[in-house]
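Record type: monomer structure entry
Structure origin: computed from sequence
Chain ID: A
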Amino acid sequence: MSWKIRPNRPEDVMQLADIYLSVRRQTFTWVDPGNFYQEDFAAHTNGEIVSVCEGEDGRIAGFISIWAADDFIHMLYILPEFQGKGAGTALLQSLPAWPKHPYRLKCLVNNRHAKAFYLAHGFQVTGRGASTEGDYEELSFVPASGE
């Protein structure tokens, strides 16, 4: 499948909020789904750069948001029907200076599928912490020397 990565547009906001809400409710089964709200997307991406992944048919498969000042990947969410089909990889590859630039993120320990994805893409566990949604690991992407 081929993917198009583009900046988000104002008309995407409701669909991205729906993706964020539905994927969190489906994935974070250990958290009360009533803790997730439609309004979270706007609040959680405020000040971030958001890019959208579209399929060949123009349907939005997911998105990535980064806090550029800290090279921090805040969110990468893909609809379940598009997971494992390259959409997440395309979003990572769209990051500025990827793969020659370091990035970091936090991944909930219980989110084993996401952790496996990031480890497969060269991230390494570099720290640990706790949040209201559970324990997390900080993962860092450090480019190989000579790249």
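Annotation 1: The chain is about 25% helix and 35% strand.
Annotation 2: The mean pLDDT is 94.
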